[in-house]
Amino acid sequence: MDTRFLESLVTVVDNGSMAEAARRLNLTPAAVAQRLRALEAELGLRLVLRAGRNMKPTEDGLAVVSRARRLLAELRDLAAIADRSLAGELRIGAVPTATIGLLPGLMTRLQEAHPRIEIRIQPGASAELYGRVQAGELDAAVIVQPYFPLPKTLGWQTLREERLIVLAPSRLAGADPHAVLQAEPFVRYDQSSWGGRIVDGYLRQHRIRVRERFELVTLDAIAVLVDRGLGVSLVPEWAPPWPEGLSLARLRLPGEAPARCMGLIWNLASPRPRLVAALRGVAEAD
Fold first, then answer.
1. 233-270 pLDDT tens trace
2. 66, 172, 218, 232: which has the fewest C-beta neighbours closer than 10 Å?
3. Mean pLDDT score of the chain, rounded to an integer?
4. DSSP codes of every residue in 178-241
5. Do the first three CATH levels of 3-83 and 88-158+266-284 match, i.e. the same topology?
6. How far apart, in whole angstroms, are the C-alpha atoms of residue 154 and residue 43?
7. What is the per-residue pLDDT across 105-152, written as a single tens digit (0 to 9) for each?
8. What fold is seen in the domain 88-158+266-284?
9. SS3 of 264, please?
10. For position 24, what pLDDT does the model report?
Protein backbone atom coordinates (compact mmCIF):
# COMPACT_ATOMS: atom_id res chain seq x y z
CA MET A 1 0.00 0.00 0.00
CA ASP A 2 1.35 3.42 -1.00
CA THR A 3 1.39 5.67 2.06
CA ARG A 4 0.93 8.68 -0.22
CA PHE A 5 -2.58 7.41 -0.90
CA LEU A 6 -3.29 7.33 2.83
CA GLU A 7 -1.93 10.87 3.16
CA SER A 8 -4.25 12.00 0.38
CA LEU A 9 -7.25 10.42 2.13
CA VAL A 10 -6.42 12.10 5.45
CA THR A 11 -5.94 15.47 3.73
CA VAL A 12 -9.27 15.22 1.89
CA VAL A 13 -11.11 14.31 5.11
CA ASP A 14 -9.40 17.08 7.10
CA ASN A 15 -10.19 19.74 4.51
CA GLY A 16 -13.55 18.44 3.27
CA SER A 17 -12.64 19.25 -0.30
CA MET A 18 -10.79 17.52 -3.11
CA ALA A 19 -9.63 20.87 -4.50
CA GLU A 20 -8.25 22.10 -1.15
CA ALA A 21 -6.54 18.77 -0.52
CA ALA A 22 -4.94 18.97 -3.97
CA ARG A 23 -3.68 22.49 -3.22
CA ARG A 24 -2.12 21.40 0.06
CA LEU A 25 -0.53 18.31 -1.50
CA ASN A 26 0.66 20.24 -4.57
CA LEU A 27 -1.29 17.92 -6.87
CA THR A 28 -4.18 18.27 -9.29
CA PRO A 29 -7.67 17.36 -8.07
CA ALA A 30 -7.71 14.60 -10.68
CA ALA A 31 -4.53 13.10 -9.21
CA VAL A 32 -5.99 13.16 -5.69
CA ALA A 33 -9.20 11.54 -6.94
CA GLN A 34 -7.16 8.84 -8.68
CA ARG A 35 -5.27 8.10 -5.47
CA LEU A 36 -8.53 7.74 -3.53
CA ARG A 37 -10.02 5.41 -6.15
CA ALA A 38 -6.88 3.26 -6.07
CA LEU A 39 -6.99 3.10 -2.26
CA GLU A 40 -10.70 2.18 -2.27
CA ALA A 41 -10.05 -0.53 -4.84
CA GLU A 42 -7.16 -1.97 -2.81
CA LEU A 43 -9.19 -2.03 0.42
CA GLY A 44 -12.49 -2.96 -1.18
CA LEU A 45 -14.22 -0.16 0.75
CA ARG A 46 -15.98 3.09 -0.07
CA LEU A 47 -14.04 5.70 1.88
CA VAL A 48 -15.51 9.08 0.90
CA LEU A 49 -18.77 10.40 -0.51
CA ARG A 50 -19.58 13.69 -2.17
CA ALA A 51 -22.05 15.86 -0.22
CA GLY A 52 -22.76 18.88 -2.40
CA ARG A 53 -19.41 20.59 -2.94
CA ASN A 54 -17.79 18.81 -0.01
CA MET A 55 -16.31 15.37 0.55
CA LYS A 56 -17.44 13.41 3.61
CA PRO A 57 -15.89 10.20 4.97
CA THR A 58 -18.01 7.08 5.17
CA GLU A 59 -18.07 5.02 8.37
CA ASP A 60 -15.34 2.82 6.91
CA GLY A 61 -13.48 5.93 5.81
CA LEU A 62 -13.43 7.31 9.36
CA ALA A 63 -12.02 4.02 10.67
CA VAL A 64 -9.29 3.97 8.01
CA VAL A 65 -8.40 7.65 8.62
CA SER A 66 -8.01 7.02 12.35
CA ARG A 67 -5.50 4.23 11.73
CA ALA A 68 -3.83 6.14 8.89
CA ARG A 69 -3.07 9.13 11.13
CA ARG A 70 -1.18 6.92 13.58
CA LEU A 71 0.67 5.12 10.80
CA LEU A 72 1.75 8.36 9.11
CA ALA A 73 2.90 9.82 12.44
CA GLU A 74 4.99 6.71 13.13
CA LEU A 75 6.54 6.92 9.68
CA ARG A 76 7.52 10.55 10.30
CA ASP A 77 9.12 9.48 13.58
CA LEU A 78 11.09 6.77 11.80
CA ALA A 79 12.34 9.28 9.25
CA ALA A 80 13.46 11.60 12.05
CA ILE A 81 15.38 8.78 13.75
CA ALA A 82 17.05 7.85 10.48
CA ASP A 83 18.54 11.28 9.81
CA ARG A 84 19.24 12.02 13.52
CA SER A 85 17.85 15.54 13.14
CA LEU A 86 15.25 17.26 15.29
CA ALA A 87 12.32 16.59 13.00
CA GLY A 88 9.00 14.85 13.25
CA GLU A 89 5.62 15.34 14.87
CA LEU A 90 5.35 16.59 18.47
CA ARG A 91 1.89 16.23 20.04
CA ILE A 92 1.22 18.78 22.76
CA GLY A 93 -1.88 19.35 24.87
CA ALA A 94 -2.77 22.59 26.65
CA VAL A 95 -5.50 23.95 28.90
CA PRO A 96 -7.41 26.97 27.46
CA THR A 97 -5.51 29.74 29.29
CA ALA A 98 -2.16 28.14 28.40
CA THR A 99 -3.18 27.83 24.74
CA ILE A 100 -3.34 31.62 24.40
CA GLY A 101 -1.07 32.70 27.27
CA LEU A 102 1.93 30.36 27.63
CA LEU A 103 1.99 28.19 24.53
CA PRO A 104 2.46 30.82 21.76
CA GLY A 105 5.81 31.93 23.17
CA LEU A 106 6.99 28.35 23.63
CA MET A 107 5.94 27.38 20.12
CA THR A 108 7.58 30.42 18.56
CA ARG A 109 10.93 29.69 20.21
CA LEU A 110 10.66 25.98 19.38
CA GLN A 111 9.94 26.66 15.70
CA GLU A 112 12.76 29.19 15.47
CA ALA A 113 15.23 26.74 16.97
CA HIS A 114 13.94 23.59 15.25
CA PRO A 115 11.85 24.45 12.16
CA ARG A 116 11.49 20.82 11.08
CA ILE A 117 9.47 19.85 14.16
CA GLU A 118 5.77 19.56 13.27
CA ILE A 119 3.69 20.72 16.22
CA ARG A 120 0.18 19.39 16.83
CA ILE A 121 -1.69 21.17 19.64
CA GLN A 122 -4.76 19.66 21.27
CA PRO A 123 -6.82 21.57 23.87
CA GLY A 124 -8.43 20.04 26.92
CA ALA A 125 -8.82 20.10 30.68
CA SER A 126 -5.89 19.25 32.95
CA ALA A 127 -7.27 15.87 34.07
CA GLU A 128 -8.01 14.82 30.49
CA LEU A 129 -4.61 15.90 29.17
CA TYR A 130 -2.82 14.26 32.09
CA GLY A 131 -4.47 10.97 31.19
CA ARG A 132 -3.56 11.30 27.53
CA VAL A 133 0.09 12.01 28.33
CA GLN A 134 0.18 9.04 30.68
CA ALA A 135 -1.37 6.81 27.99
CA GLY A 136 1.16 7.98 25.39
CA GLU A 137 -1.46 9.69 23.22
CA LEU A 138 0.31 13.03 23.78
CA ASP A 139 4.05 13.64 24.15
CA ALA A 140 3.61 16.51 26.59
CA ALA A 141 1.04 18.99 27.87
CA VAL A 142 0.83 22.34 29.63
CA ILE A 143 -1.57 21.79 32.53
CA VAL A 144 -2.31 22.70 36.14
CA GLN A 145 0.03 20.80 38.46
CA PRO A 146 -1.73 17.67 39.75
CA TYR A 147 -2.78 17.68 43.40
CA PHE A 148 -1.41 14.14 43.82
CA PRO A 149 2.14 12.74 43.51
CA LEU A 150 3.22 12.00 39.94
CA PRO A 151 4.16 8.45 38.98
CA LYS A 152 7.79 7.84 38.12
CA THR A 153 6.84 7.48 34.45
CA LEU A 154 6.04 11.20 34.13
CA GLY A 155 8.21 14.32 34.30
CA TRP A 156 7.19 17.80 35.48
CA GLN A 157 8.57 21.32 34.93
CA THR A 158 6.89 24.35 36.51
CA LEU A 159 6.40 27.25 34.08
CA ARG A 160 4.38 29.78 36.07
CA GLU A 161 2.80 30.29 39.50
CA GLU A 162 -0.58 32.04 39.39
CA ARG A 163 -1.70 33.38 42.78
CA LEU A 164 -5.39 33.50 43.61
CA ILE A 165 -7.04 36.91 43.39
CA VAL A 166 -10.59 38.17 43.85
CA LEU A 167 -11.93 39.35 40.52
CA ALA A 168 -14.57 42.08 40.97
CA PRO A 169 -16.22 44.92 39.04
CA SER A 170 -14.10 48.08 39.04
CA ARG A 171 -16.52 49.82 41.45
CA LEU A 172 -15.18 47.51 44.18
CA ALA A 173 -11.52 48.47 43.70
CA GLY A 174 -9.81 48.74 47.09
CA ALA A 175 -12.47 46.77 48.95
CA ASP A 176 -11.67 44.01 51.45
CA PRO A 177 -11.43 40.80 49.37
CA HIS A 178 -12.97 38.49 51.98
CA ALA A 179 -15.85 40.88 52.61
CA VAL A 180 -16.48 41.12 48.86
CA LEU A 181 -16.60 37.32 48.52
CA GLN A 182 -19.21 37.03 51.26
CA ALA A 183 -21.34 40.02 50.24
CA GLU A 184 -21.52 39.72 46.46
CA PRO A 185 -22.99 36.98 44.22
CA PHE A 186 -20.27 34.46 43.41
CA VAL A 187 -19.15 33.17 40.01
CA ARG A 188 -17.37 29.91 40.81
CA TYR A 189 -14.40 28.47 38.98
CA ASP A 190 -15.51 24.89 38.22
CA GLN A 191 -14.93 22.77 41.33
CA SER A 192 -14.19 19.66 39.26
CA SER A 193 -11.19 21.33 37.61
CA TRP A 194 -7.79 21.12 39.30
CA GLY A 195 -7.58 24.90 39.54
CA GLY A 196 -11.11 25.00 40.95
CA ARG A 197 -10.05 22.62 43.73
CA ILE A 198 -7.51 25.24 44.91
CA VAL A 199 -10.24 27.89 45.01
CA ASP A 200 -12.58 25.60 46.92
CA GLY A 201 -9.82 24.74 49.40
CA TYR A 202 -9.16 28.43 50.11
CA LEU A 203 -12.84 29.18 50.73
CA ARG A 204 -13.10 26.22 53.12
CA GLN A 205 -9.89 27.07 54.95
CA HIS A 206 -11.05 30.64 55.62
CA ARG A 207 -14.67 29.64 56.21
CA ILE A 208 -15.94 32.01 53.57
CA ARG A 209 -19.55 31.32 52.67
CA VAL A 210 -20.39 32.49 49.17
CA ARG A 211 -23.70 33.03 47.39
CA GLU A 212 -23.04 31.01 44.26
CA ARG A 213 -24.77 32.23 41.12
CA PHE A 214 -22.81 30.57 38.30
CA GLU A 215 -20.14 27.90 37.89
CA LEU A 216 -17.92 28.02 34.82
CA VAL A 217 -14.81 26.19 33.67
CA THR A 218 -13.44 28.95 31.38
CA LEU A 219 -11.63 31.80 33.12
CA ASP A 220 -12.18 34.25 30.24
CA ALA A 221 -15.93 33.67 30.53
CA ILE A 222 -15.78 34.27 34.30
CA ALA A 223 -14.02 37.60 33.69
CA VAL A 224 -16.74 38.69 31.26
CA LEU A 225 -19.55 37.85 33.73
CA VAL A 226 -17.79 39.77 36.47
CA ASP A 227 -17.38 42.76 34.16
CA ARG A 228 -21.12 42.65 33.46
CA GLY A 229 -21.81 43.01 37.17
CA LEU A 230 -23.15 39.47 37.61
CA GLY A 231 -20.92 38.67 40.55
CA VAL A 232 -17.35 38.34 41.81
CA SER A 233 -14.97 35.41 41.58
CA LEU A 234 -11.89 33.85 43.12
CA VAL A 235 -9.50 32.83 40.34
CA PRO A 236 -5.81 32.33 39.58
CA GLU A 237 -4.23 35.38 37.95
CA TRP A 238 -3.65 33.64 34.65
CA ALA A 239 -1.14 34.55 31.97
CA PRO A 240 -2.22 37.31 29.58
CA PRO A 241 -3.81 38.12 27.23
CA TRP A 242 -7.09 38.68 29.07
CA PRO A 243 -10.31 39.60 27.26
CA GLU A 244 -10.15 43.19 26.02
CA GLY A 245 -12.46 46.01 27.04
CA LEU A 246 -13.22 44.76 30.55
CA SER A 247 -13.35 47.00 33.61
CA LEU A 248 -12.21 44.81 36.49
CA ALA A 249 -10.63 45.13 39.92
CA ARG A 250 -8.05 42.54 40.97
CA LEU A 251 -8.17 42.33 44.76
CA ARG A 252 -5.12 40.78 46.43
CA LEU A 253 -5.76 38.27 49.20
CA PRO A 254 -4.22 38.84 52.62
CA GLY A 255 -0.95 37.04 53.28
CA GLU A 256 0.57 34.70 50.72
CA ALA A 257 -2.28 33.47 48.56
CA PRO A 258 -2.21 29.88 47.27
CA ALA A 259 -1.20 29.48 43.63
CA ARG A 260 -2.21 27.46 40.65
CA CYS A 261 1.06 26.10 39.26
CA MET A 262 1.13 25.78 35.50
CA GLY A 263 3.72 23.48 34.05
CA LEU A 264 4.88 21.06 31.43
CA ILE A 265 4.20 17.36 31.95
CA TRP A 266 5.67 14.68 29.70
CA ASN A 267 5.91 10.92 29.41
CA LEU A 268 9.42 9.66 30.13
CA ALA A 269 8.74 6.74 27.80
CA SER A 270 7.77 8.95 24.87
CA PRO A 271 8.98 7.61 21.50
CA ARG A 272 10.08 11.18 20.73
CA PRO A 273 12.42 11.96 23.67
CA ARG A 274 14.65 14.32 21.68
CA LEU A 275 11.67 16.41 20.56
CA VAL A 276 10.34 16.56 24.12
CA ALA A 277 13.82 17.58 25.32
CA ALA A 278 13.82 20.41 22.76
CA LEU A 279 10.46 21.62 24.09
CA ARG A 280 11.74 21.48 27.67
CA GLY A 281 14.83 23.41 26.59
CA VAL A 282 12.86 26.37 25.23
CA ALA A 283 10.60 26.25 28.30
CA GLU A 284 13.62 26.55 30.61
CA ALA A 285 14.86 29.53 28.59
CA ASP A 286 11.61 31.43 29.19
1. 999 999 999 999 999 999 999 999 999 999 999 999 88
2. 66
3. 90
4. HHHHHHSEEEEE-TTSHHHHHHHHHHHHTT---EEEEEES-HHHHHHHHHTTS-BEEEE-PPSP
5. no
6. 39
7. 999 999 998 888 889 899 999 999 999 999 988 999 999 999 999 999
8. D-Maltodextrin-Binding Protein; domain 2 (3.40.190)
9. strand
10. 84
Among 155, 144, 145, 95, CA closest to 121: 95
What is the Rg, in whole angstroms, of the alpha carbon atoms belonging to the chain? 24
What is the residue extent of each domain of the chain?
A: 3-83, 88-158+266-284, 161-260
3.30.1490.20, 3.40.50.12160, 2.60.40.1120, 3.40.190.10: CATH of 161-260: 3.40.190.10
- Per the DSSP assignment, residues forming a β-bridge with 232 are 186
Residue 57: name the closest of 13, 14, 17 by CA. Answer: 13
Q: Under CATH, which number does the domain 3-83 receive?
A: 1.10.10.10
CB atoms within 10 A of CB 184: 22
User: Dmax over Cα atoms in the chain, in whole Å?
Assistant: 72
